[in-house]
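Q: Convert this sequence to structure tokens.
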Amino acid sequence: MITAPGARGPSRTRLALFKLIERFQPDETAFMAVMAVVVGVIGGFGAVVFRLAVDFFQGFALGHGEHTVALLAGVPWWRKLLLPVIGGLIVGPLVHFGAREARGHGVPEVINSLAFRKGVIRPVVALVKITASAITIGFGGSVGREGPIVQIGAAMGSSLGQWLRFSPQRLRTLIGCGAAAGIAATFNAPIAGAFFALEILLRDFALVTFSPIIIAAVTATVISREFLGDTPAFPVPAFEYSGPQELPFFLVMGLLVGLLAVAYVRTVYAGEDAFARLPVPAWLQPALGGIVLGVLILWFPQIYGVGYDTMVEALNGRLAWSLMLVLVAVKLLAVSITLGSGFSGGVFAPALFLGGMLGGACGALLGQIMPGATGAVGAFAMVGMAAMVGAATGGPLTAILILFEMTGEYRIILPLMLASIGAALVYRALLRDSMFTLKFTRRGQELQFGRESAILRDYQVQDIMEVNPATIAIDARLEQILDLFLGDTVEHYYVVDRDGRLAGRISIHDVKDILHEQSLGRLLIAADLCSPQPEVVHRLDNLENCLLALGRRDLADLPVLYSADHPVLVGVVTRRAIFEVYNREVLQQRDAGIQLVTGEARMRDCVELPEQYKVQLLTPPAAWHGRCLRELALRQRYGISVLAVKQRALLGEAANRMPDPEQPLLPGDRLIIVGEVKDLDRLLVDLHPQVSSDKTRR
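A:
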């Protein structure tokens, strides 16, 4: 076993757990099933704690009870005006200085951790999100509690996986388990919770992912039913369906909901942009937004908090169609102010509210056109809720399952599917991104989902590049270039200027046509012969983007530049090296989980490196040729250890040998080295001093 110098071993608790796991040696499916139960329990209790926190802060602000509109009726006007402001004064500093990831509705931050952070979510996010969202809802923020519980559950799952030193793939699965547990416990809908994680977050229905997420959702639902009761998030009336003659009206309503979904997403992001332009500190913006919210609550108390009681009124046909249409406009404004100013809360409940109001208004108008359509208001409101959620979040299947589980009525399926798909098609025709993914498009980031993409995104180019590639000076003469090609089997060399900047490349095909032109030997230099390099990558790029760049030009390798600001050639990455990483991760998925640090012979061997360490393949510069490792003194100068020397063989593949301190290095030898990232970067700068000088000049 090789352990990095200075690495801290695991705690006694983790070591005992690792030994227990190793003793029983469960397979991957059984092990992740057990972990799913653990995450389901944690997520279920997290949902319960969050619900209790919301009730506590709402009771403190208004008084206890589910009917906020009735509670607000007995509150003085000045208190209605100040409650959101007070909430903003608490939430703003809490989020800004505690965990900025808790700002807004939270689901994009979960997706960001899945796509770009290897499944890592800071543990503090769960605590800050619970507190900030509960205060936001309790003090009048016009948001929901479903989005926060997704982020809370995901943060809990990620924190558990980080504590157990799980691989990025396992971390992602645990995040999906936590999110599914949160949705399942909140809506009392285990199937919908599971499909939310699979359809919207992970977009991965492989059995190895599907099974633990289902288990976590079921476990969390059992916990929530034990403490919160076996009831839906809000009561829904019996679904009344007159017959197929109503289906065209459901389709028309679905198309209108699709338009509303586009307006909803655009309005939320417009609110964020408007507050971002204000010359007000970010921690103070929620209080500023609270002033506007307070004014709206004075006139429309229905927008206070989650708004479930108003939705129930619409479902039971107790609201006028004109009021429901007005509430659609007011709710759009209230949600954009709440989330745009920096409060913390979800977008599910507002989507349900908006879809329910628009659907209820359509049902009420249909009742006037067709007096025989009894119960049309409630039916259209229910279907409108699901259609709105599905269109705005990009998860129509999840939305259909949520409403189906809440109603338990099979007759709702036909109008529900028709309206949801109609809304989704209209939305997709007008806006490509969902509420959750639009944030990444605005940043210029392209999301790629799936297990294969995740594997390659976990690695950077610098992790596998060959350092210090063979190069030719830009002013090298033709005879020097010919000598290089004749003395080696390399098909092309990269051309660099005096500062190490990439100027292009020269291949054997560029010089073969002038091999017999002796008179040109003194006239032509590398700058005359080199071709522009069509694609380059930077050392911090991920392997997925690197592989796409290779595929665009059908190249076998790419030059690696230090960065976009410092375009110095520091390495080369090959297609073969990328495929080796991918194959190793796919074929050895079982061994990519817990890394056991122990000296017992019966335990499987492993190499454990903390995050600040990495293994690097280094091509020695020409100045090192003929010198031995003792002379180079890499350990003394940089704290870097040489694990092996990859010697070039005359025939066949290069062979690895143990490093001999007295053995001189030859051209073609490469070193496998290990050390801290900062020390490896220091060596890289010493090999390419122009990188350091570039930074100094800038």
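The two ends are 44 Å apart (CA to CA).
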